[in-house]
Amino acid sequence: MTTYSITDARKGLSRLIDRALAGETVTISRHGRALAELRPIAMSDHKASQASYAWLKARRLRRRGVDLTSVELLDQLYDGR
Q1: For residues 13 and 7, what is the distance between their CA atoms, to the nearest angstrom?
Q2: pLDDT, tens digit, for every residue of 17-72?
Q3: 29, 7 Cβ separation under 8 angstroms
Q4: Do 7 and 32 fall into the same domain?
Q5: How many independent structural domains does the chain possess?
């Protein structure tokens, strides 16, 4: 684990990201106190987020439509129908 100041991290963020992707845990500090860590996202988290997205998309596609445009809906609201 290596530690970099915020200033150093700003100057070389892409280099630090490359180090994190290579498996190194990169710590960013301010005044010697650790504030953040850079590390790659675990593939299991990525797969879980893809599964969640697929579930949400399927749910959205199963929903019944209103069959009205927003303009028609507002017209009905203001006309008192």
Answers
A1: 10
A2: 998 888 888 999 999 899 999 988 775 566 667 788 888 889 888 887 778 888 98
A3: no
A4: yes
A5: 2
- In this structure, are 69 and 47 located in the same domain? yes
Q: For residue 1, what are its two tokens?
A: 């684990």
21 and 40 Cβ atoms separated by less than 8 Å: yes
CA distance 68 to 44: 41
**Edge-to-edge, what's the strand order for the sheet holding 2-5?**
2-5, 26-30, 33-38
The whole model's pTM is what? 0.49
Q: Which domain holds residue 52?
A: 43-79
CA distance 41 to 23: 10
